[in-house]
Design a protein that fits this description.
single chain; 106 residues; mainly beta; eight-stranded antiparallel beta barrel; globular
Length: 106
C-alpha cells in the first residue's frame, strides 16, 4: 500500500467488542452498535486532517484535531501539535465495513 486505502476517509467508531489481541476494530459511524456507555472514534480526511474522538466528561465523545501522514507501507503517523501525544498506527485491514489497526506507538 503506497497510499492509504480510499475507504479510510470517513468517521470510524471503536467497536471494542470485536477487539482481539492487540488489534483494535473500528466500524463506520452508522454501524448498528450494541449499547455502550461511550465509544471512542476517529476521522480521516484525504487532505491529511484527522480528528481523534476520545471519551470526554460524562462519556461523551470529545474532538481533538490533528494530522495524519503515511510513514511507510501500512503505517500512519498521527500528530496533534502538542495537544496530546503523537502516535503511529498500522493498518491491518480497511474496507467499507471495517478498519483493523494496531497501535505501534503512543
Amino acid at each position: 500500500m503506497s497510499e492509504p486505502p480510499s475507504g479510510l476517509f470517513r468517521s470510524w467508531v471503536h467497536s471494542h467488542e470485536e477487539d482481539h489481541e492487540d488489534v483494535r476494530v473500528y466500524r463506520p459511524d452508522d454501524h448498528p452498535f450494541p449499547p455502550a456507555r461511550g465509544r471512542r472514534g476517529m476521522e480521516f480526511a484525504p487532505d491529511g486532517t484527522f480528528v481523534d474522538h476520545p471519551l470526554g466528561s460524562g462519556d461523551a465523545p470529545d474532538a481533538v484535531p490533528g494530522r495524519w501522514r503515511l510513514v511507510s507501507d501500512r503505517h500512519i503517523a498521527l500528530t496533534f501539535g502538542g495537544a496530546r501525544p503523537d502516535r503511529e498506527l498500522e493498518i491491518l485491514r480497511c474496507d467499507e465495513d471495517v478498519l483493523h489497526v494496531r497501535r505501534l506507538t503512543g
